[in-house]
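Q: Sequence in, structure out?
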Amino acid sequence: MSTSIREKQSYGFYVVLPLIMLITLLQSTAFASVRILGAVPDLTLIVVVGWAALQGPREGISVALIAGLFTDILSGAPLGISTIALALVGLVVGIGENNIFQTARFLPYAAIFVATMAHGIIFVFLLHATGHPMAWGTALGRVTAPSAVLNSILMLGIFPVLRWLASHTRIETAEWK
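A: Exactly. Output:
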């Protein structure tokens, strides 16, 4: 009889859930007017991307859906836009968890840049599709691109904390063969 690790399980979702709700609340209130060199940090997106990169698509999309719904409730945007944008980003990043992020430790830091740009494009597209036209060039060039750079810098401090949290909330189950 040999023992093998069957599946990665975690109770980290239950720890990160109140954390993402608190961050989203702070993002929508206290940090709503924070600008750093013209860029707007998106702490909610950073946590969603970091958690999805560490925990995979199931927890990535779960955290993204909750964060998106909470963001939709707190923001003035049409209901569902933040949820859809965050869910798509969380799912795609989560899919890369086993295939990409486990092999190269620097990739989550690059992923936040791409994820911020993708989130911005999806968000503006959905706003436009729901009858809220926006100037694409202005939205992506003056808001999303600088925010992608800022989010990449902030990920340097946030991702190690998320990695620690994920490693301390992971349960590995054994299966006898």
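Residues 1-7 have pLDDT under 50 and may be disordered.
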